[in-house]
Write a structure and sequence with these properties.
By secondary structure, the chain is an alpha+beta fold. The chain is about 20% helix and about 35% strand.
Length: about 450
């Protein structure tokens, strides 16, 4: 009886086909296939056309095409296309390959290297199929996503995965980082292509992979893309807000020294004279905990948040100063080109203190090529001492000890003599015109 059922397939063949689980999987499979079919026509291949002729000649003469350079997505039916800046860097034009096998040459409208985005435009008499942007602030870890692009020249390759992480930064891929991480397979050639949610909305532009890892790709969030593209389309460049401060991470030792119990925020180590923060009353040693409605935990986040505002906007900057919370309205200026994140010493190691210092003399100014003459000069750092472990160097200038300025050796000695056993020492250091704070634990 049982053998007969097995041979006929009635027990083991027909039952699974009728199961609710299988029907559900088939429905999911059908939905994903329909999604891929719907979004694929909006994705294009991008080949940069680079100039090898003399400047001033017609771009198509004396030029060469870089095949399979990357991908892009059509964002408007009249021919606007988004891709990565690195896909078309050093190009004069871009050749665009559409899903119907047609090819058009695109003008490079504008580029933003700081976010690795570029806006292209093709001229066409027909309406192009275009993608819709979703709200990347609603993206959740674990949700399904679809990456579409042209890896290794394989047109409109579709890969399915999940969002593995959000808010990824410190990847050294661009100046303003807030990446969506995904395990949807991304390979060379996917750069500039879209990352879709299950509604067929673009939630990111795929931009990078980690070469030595599998299943780790990064996408620029759609909300950032929308803001950048809007400015590139309107004015040909991105104009960013400017606060005018030097900043560094708030380490546990620094948080303790500055009286920040939860350790959250960004430490201001320098305020540029005459810039917006200075005019609003921000001072060196303030801990910026929030700008507008966004709480801050890293220098990169602060830089990105400020850059998201336009010059002329007034933002509320929340700071902790000497244990007291303050709110300072700051009228933002125009983003300057000098960096706002100071170079930092390495992580601390708890060993004995060891430095030799000297007043700044004219001879030492010449010897160390100093721009600043106020403070105490570090003339020797003992190998293996706590100052050495904290990254102090010969030629550094100590401007403050425990939040008190030390213009002379007498002030410097008096403050150190008052330090109790086991107490940490907070130094404000100036190095090559960049300031930073460091905690020494003798």
């Amino acid at each position: 009886m049982i053998l007969s059922a097995i041979l006929s397939g009635s027990a083991f063949a027909s039952a699974p086909l009728e199961s609710k689980g299988l029907r559900l999987l088939e429905e999911i499979q059908e939905a994903i296939s329909h999604l891929a079919e719907h979004v694929t026509p909006t994705v294009v291949g991008v080949s940069s056309i680079r100039q090898i002729s003399q400047p001033g000649k017609i771009p198509r003469q004396g030029s060469f095409k870089v095949p399979g350079a990357g991908s892009g997505v059509v964002i408007h039916e009249d021919g606007y296309i988004v891709t990565n800046n690195h896909v078309i860097s050093n190009a004069v034009e871009a050749e665009i390959h559409f899903s119907d096998q047609s090819t058009l040459v695109a003008e490079i409208v504008a580029q933003d290297p700081d976010t690795d985005l570029a806006l292209l435009k093709v001229e066409t008499d027909r309406k192009l199929e275009s993608a819709t942007f979703g709200d990347s602030s609603m993206v959740k870890v674990g949700q399904w996503v679809l990456a579409v692009g042209n890896p290794f020249g394989l047109d409109r390759t579709v890969t399915l995965g999940v969002v593995s992480g959000i808010g990824r930064e410190n990847m050294n891929l661009s100046r303003y980082e807030n990446f969506i991480q995904t395990d949807a397979s991304i390979n060379p050639g996917n750069s500039g292509g879209p990352l879709f949610n299950l509604r067929g909305e673009v939630i990111g532009i795929n931009t990078a992979i980690i070469n030595f890892a599998q299943g780790i790709g990064f996408a620029i969030p759609s909300n950032m893309v929308s803001r950048i593209i809007e400015q590139l389309k309107a004015g040909g460049k991105v104009v960013r807000g400017w606060l005018g401060v030097g900043i560094q991470p708030l380490t546990p030792h620094l948080a303790e020294k500055f009286g920040v119990p939860d350790g959250k925020g960004v430490l201001v180590n320098e305020v540029f004279p005459g810039d917006p923060a200075d005019q609003a009353g921000v001072i060196s040693g303030d801990i910026i905990t929030q700008i507008g409605n966004e709480r801050l935990e890293s220098p990169n986040q602060l830089s990105r948040v400020v850059a998201g505002f336009s010059p002329g906007e007034t933002v509320m900057v929340h700071v902790i100063r000497d244990g007291t919370s303050l709110q300072l309205p700051v009228l933002l200026g125009v983003k300057e080109e000098h960096p706002i994140v100071a170079s930092l010493p390495p992580t601390a190691a708890e060993v004995d203190l060891g430095i030799d210092v000297s007043p700044i003399t004219e001879e030492l100014v010449q010897q160390f090529s100093l721009d600043q003459t106020t403070g105490i000069l570090v003339v020797r750092v003992v190998q293996g001492g706590v100052a050495n472990a904290e990254g102090l160097r010969k030629g550094d200038i100590i401007q403050e000890v425990n939040r008190t300025q030390v213009p002379t050796m007498r002030e410097f000695r008096e403050i150190l003599e008052a330090v109790q056993p086991g107490e940490t020492i907070l130094l404000r250091i100036l190095r090559e015109s960049k300031a930073f704070f460091v905690v020494l634990k003798p």
